Amino acid sequence: MDPSTLFALPTELISQICDILYHTHPSSLLNFARSNKACYTIASAFFSRTIWIFAAEPEDLITVVQEHLERLHRLGALGCVRRLVIYGPGVDCPNRDTPPDSSAPMAVADLEGRFDNPRLSFYLFDESPVEKVHEFDNRWLPLVDLIRQLPSLADLIYQCPGQFPPCLLQALHEHLPKCRLHIDNFYLRSLVANPPIADPYEFMIATSPCLYSISIAAHHDDKSAPSHHVGAVFRLVSGLAPNLKEVHLFRNKKWKWNADQEHSSFFPPWGNLPISKACPGVLGSLSCLQLWGPDDEGSSITDRVITDWSMHTDFTVLRVLRINSVIGEDVLNNLVNGSHNFRSLETLVLTLRHTGELAPVARVSSLTEMLVCDLQGLHTLEIIGWCKKIAISTKLSPKLRSLRLRPCYDQYLTWRDITNIRARCPMIENLDIPLLRTKGDANEVALYEALGTLPKLEDLALDLYVPFRSCRSGEEVPRPKPYFDDFDRELLTGFNFLKGHVRDVFINNAVDGTLVRAIFETISGVKGRYNLGRLERLKIDAGGNRCLSIFSNKFQILRKYGVPLYGTWQVDRNPRDDSRQVLITKRLKQKNRELEERQHNEVDQLFPEIVADPSEVESIFRRIWPERWEGSDWWDDWYSFPLSKSTS
Length: 648
Prior knowledge:
By secondary structure, the chain is of the alpha/beta class.
């Protein structure tokens, strides 16, 4: 478009275009801002919507705040700021120096998705005495001056380990009472005392009308004394914090937490404070509840946990439920057959535990299907620990827009599952599923073509599964395939694998940029043929990430020769209107060859009895991918086999 034509449009319309770019393709908005002064003036309002403040040294905080104020004044953008993010160790942190083995605090780019895959940071706790927050309060005063000049500030996200500063809380109450306060490391230090006490200022934070969301880690102290924080959160939810809408409850594996004990009806000893406004028996109105912990049995959520939460918040208004701790049959039975009503639920995340015994797996699968079938208003569903027995493809919500299935090992969707998803979920836009890799044959191509029939699909992630079952010496040898030659029918020394089976695994694991583009084009070709919109992004995990243990078959048999073959690829369609046919392919997380080969050499020395003979593995590799020229490097000689031209 000619620049003169663009600026013939009303400024309001150009601003709407910038707003779309801000949410969909920020780099294009940045290029637009760099075009000329007029473009920069319009775009600057959108770049000013979120301000990031790194809080460490008091002197640096003064400088950073002053720089932001000068820029906002110069652009006339003080009224454009919607979010203020404060992160880092904090100006009151007693240990600002980060140990060499710990990562420095980083800003979270995706604020809305910062709890999708949560990780506890090094700066999670500052267990200094509760009185310290007043001692260093004046160090935060530069931010008070900033807040007072941001009339449209809607969200303040505090990610420092220390307690939220009194001067900032006062500034919010006096100047921005409708601003939503998000405390990502919520911690009531007065409850650590034995017996717990109630600090007046911490009570003020807990009862603040600005408090909107908290993330909190419940744990025991070094003496294994129970944490009172879960019970305190119950009180906040059911009346103390009038506008608290989101709770993210975390627990690290090293912290021993008896879930039933921690979810008892604990009432903090705040008898000397005015808690009469917290009416016992009044249900809160959380919109988001997340329970997160490591994937071990001791961390599992029990049915009592769900029952206790239902006694403190109204499940009928809950919109997001993320259970990132493993659950079993008891919790699923509670969710399905209890008296809960999830009529407003739009997002559900489940983390399932499978014991390996057939009867419990069947019951867990059946209850999961029933739960999914009951929730016909879901927009987003994620199941961690999905298996084939959970046949949900015919029970999904017709309103579903995003589906993510993170499977147990050796689990994948079939062509029939994809066609069922198409029939049940015509609005699905984001899909993350496991599929079986079969050397690009007609059956595999049929899966990609079936995905092309999903009318609204834009963002697709595939976890390509390569079958590779354990076959140590003494076990039954798998039957040879009809196309195996004499070399393929030979046994791999020390394993009951035929060399032909190892060759097939090599071919299935070999995924390069050419193959990834071919998969994208296959799916897009079907969508184009039926005018079903465009696929915008394809991400492929080509195996290996779940099989890096030295005791895995891939590590022991493929050896170092399997390392460059598998990885993660992403294909994006060019966002330019005049270049939509252009595909941008990139490999994510490049392999460190020196590190990988050193790891394999160390295993050779420590466990020579569990790994395959490297000369045998190399001979199989070279039969598939001979040297391109004499002395060429095997690391660069491999390539993916093309997709079949016909489907089954």
